[in-house]
Design brief:
about 170 residues; alpha+beta; 2 domains; five-stranded antiparallel β-sheet; two-stranded antiparallel ribbon; 3 helices
């Protein structure tokens, strides 16, 4: 079977490709192309095994709570505290250290420098120990771009929503 294809690129150039092939080879190439397309489309929709991230819907309180719950955190029922945060256009040492913490959890705030984002703060009920722990979730254009889990006590801890060891830090 001989097939000829005309490929037009940007309306300026025309290429004619002619090849000799069998139906089974053509079917194999089409299936491989469909598989590659499927993988590329699904990559943004599924948790990443490499970074341990979970896709998070930041458009509603219900979506943010569902994602934090999926990470293993039990949250208090009261509404979250909400504040607007301006990420610096020129990062200082504090911001760079915080972004390094985000990168350990599989997120990067660099593209959002100079942007105003919303920070939603939830109380976490099931973190080990007797201290008060909060989950901070940063939202830009209804998308979760990062966040952290932190202790409110002086000298407390802070780590990404997913720790470097791949665990959420929550219990039960």
């Amino acid at each position: 079977m001989t097939a000829s294809y005309i490929l037009v690129w940007e309306g300026l150039h025309m290429f004619v490709v002619s090849m000799k092939t069998t139906r089974s080879r053509l079917l194999g190439v089409l299936l491989a192309a469909a598989l590659v397309l499927f993988i590329l489309l699904m990559q943004g929709c599924l948790p990443s095994e490499e970074t341990g991230t979970v896709p998070m819907d930041g458009s509603s309180d219900e979506g943010r709570r569902a994602c934090l719950t999926a990470l293993g955190y039990q949250l208090a029922t009261e509404p979250p505290q909400v504040r607007e945060v301006l990420f610096p256009a020129e990062p200082d040492d504090v911001w760079l250290a915080y972004n390094a913490l985000q990168q350990q959890a599989g997120t990067d705030l660099t593209p959002y420098r100079g942007q105003r984002v919303k920070c939603y703060t939830y109380t976490v009920l099931n973190y080990p120990g007797d201290e008060t722990v909060e989950a901070n979730v940063y939202i830009y254009k209804d998308q979760v771009i990062g966040g952290d889990i932190s202790s409110t006590r002086q000298g407390g801890f802070r780590h990404g929503l997913i720790r470097k060891d791949g665990q959420s830090g929550a219990t039960g």
